[in-house]
Amino acid sequence: MNESPSSANEGELRDDNEIIRLCQQGDQRAFTLLVDKYQDRVFWVAYNMLGNAEEAKDVVQDAFVRVFRALDRFDFNMNFYTWFYRIVSNLAIDQLRKLKRKRPVSIEELGDQTDHLHESRKPSAKLEEDELKEGVRAILDELPPHYKIVLVLRDLEGLSCKEIAAVTDTSHPTVRWRLHTARKLFKEKWIRQENRSERAKALLVGLEQNQREL
Questions:
Q1: How many domains does the chain have?
Q2: Is the overall model pTM greater than 0.85, yes or no?
Q3: Helix axes 80-98, 161-168, angle to 10 degrees
């Protein structure tokens, strides 16, 4: 006897539309499949927008609640993950605009997924990596939201410009222009940051030399 979709092995249910249909039929386990499939991916979208793990978790939770409430009206002509990314992106942008001040972010909040690689690294290499991440984070926080989201989705999440256009509800040319501008802004800010860093190092060296001369 053939298995019904709801009794099939959960690991075999990889098609989003199939999972959504099960949700619409009242299969409570099916929604868990969507959560398991997307929660890590959308967390990083929210985190890279907000720079704060707790705020990112709140955005993701809110997004899943909205998805759950809207699944019975889901339009199967749409791509689910595009629709879901749009919800997460809009919530993250809204939250970003609500923040009255930027909060400092420690590198520990990143929840680095490569900790197992750090064990064999020299402390200096780990320090340099942490400084690099903090530098990237600082520059991302300076970008306007509409530039920041395309940079996050394209260069950090790997979505195509056409997919980003669907997520952000803009045209393909607009996404390409915003991405070009965002990369240009990032590069300019990165160069200025590196110059400041070099000047700071030179200042410290000078101070140390002056101290020894006292």
A1: 2
A2: no
A3: 60
